[in-house]
Amino acid sequence: MSTPSTLTVTNQQAAQPLINTPAFRTFFSRFSTSIRDGLSQRRPWAELVDRNSMARPESLADALSRIRKNLAYFKVNYVAAV
């Protein structure tokens, strides 16, 4: 009866941390540039909450039209708030 042999595996290359890889640095650089560009398009918060510019819509169609316009105009602000 013989004893089973054990196979020893060694890693010749040291594992490089994920954050240190060129691919991660490129991804992070592009991601941060995109965030900066997006935030540069936000509208002033005071304009978003200005009560003087709010009036009761005349109809449901008018209300829906205003909602669509506000979503497009303030979309970056809404995303930042969420």
From TrEMBL:
Some GO term, biological process aspect, for this entry: which one? vesicle-mediated transport
Q: List the InterPro entries hit by this protein, alphabetically.
A: Prenylated_rab_accept_PRA1
Q: Which keywords accompany this UniProt record? A: Membrane, Transmembrane, Transmembrane helix, Transport
- One cellular component term from this protein's GO annotations in UniProt: membrane
Pfam family of the protein (one): PRA1
| Localization | Endomembrane system; Membrane
How is the protein disposed in the membrane?
A: Multi-pass membrane protein
Similarity section: Belongs to the PRA1 family.
Q: What does this chain do?
A: May be involved in both secretory and endocytic intracellular trafficking in the endosomal/prevacuolar compartments.
| PANTHER family registered for this protein in UniProt | PRA1 FAMILY PROTEIN B1, PRENYLATED RAB ACCEPTOR 1-RELATED
What is the protein name stated in its UniProt record?
PRA1 family protein
Which organism is this entry from? Brassica carinata (Ethiopian mustard)
